[in-house]
Specification:
The chain is 22% helix and 17% strand. It has 208 residues and is an alpha/beta fold. The protein folds into two domains: 31-132, FAD/NAD(P)-binding domain; 139-206, no CATH class. A six-stranded mixed sheet has the order 3-2-1-6-5-4, with helices on one face. It is elongated, with a radius of gyration of 21 Å. It starts with 30 loop residues before the first strand and ends with a helix.
Length: 208
Amino acid sequence: MSAQRASITQIPVRYAGGGAKIHKIPDTQTDFDVVVVGGVSATALTKFWQNDHIHEQVALVTPQTKYLNSELYHMVNISAVKILAYETDSVAAQVNASSKIVYTKVKQFKPDENKVVLDNGKEYTYRALVVQNGLEQKSEFIEGLKELEDEHRSGVFVHLADSKFRIDKNHYHGWQHFHGDLIYYQPKRPMKDEGLNFFLFYYEHLLR
């Protein structure tokens, strides 16, 4: 994989010649064919529609301007992929002005009225609503883990795809564990444990 930042769809929005004329959605518009709510998947879906020349009027409601390719966490953590690829291009670089991008969250859903109320106070109506909440990753979700991480900052390592800066901390920590107990936490099953068992093998059999 290239060291370039990962494009969400791998198809650039604007070509060298400028491409066809874009019919921009007015800033004042509040009624849409489709309202899409979410993060990186919602952004990718909106862009796929644009690539397929689906001419519905779409509003993308997303809280961040950039996202992390969480599926690359393991590969970046072992230097198989450069850290630059861990962060996507900006949402605006992927979704052109033929769809409306709103950087905020939804405060309230009103399905009986085909309406969403946004944190910025605006209300959008729609014919179809797509909600892709995704997975929010925080160490606070495991009781006591955030406090443990803060208290023993140099000796506690949490594998989360919440920040590209966490990679710098997690990347080399196994090399420094030459003695003493290694406590390995794994959530109760059933669970989807992509990569977790590898890290246990990595620590115990490759680094000791």
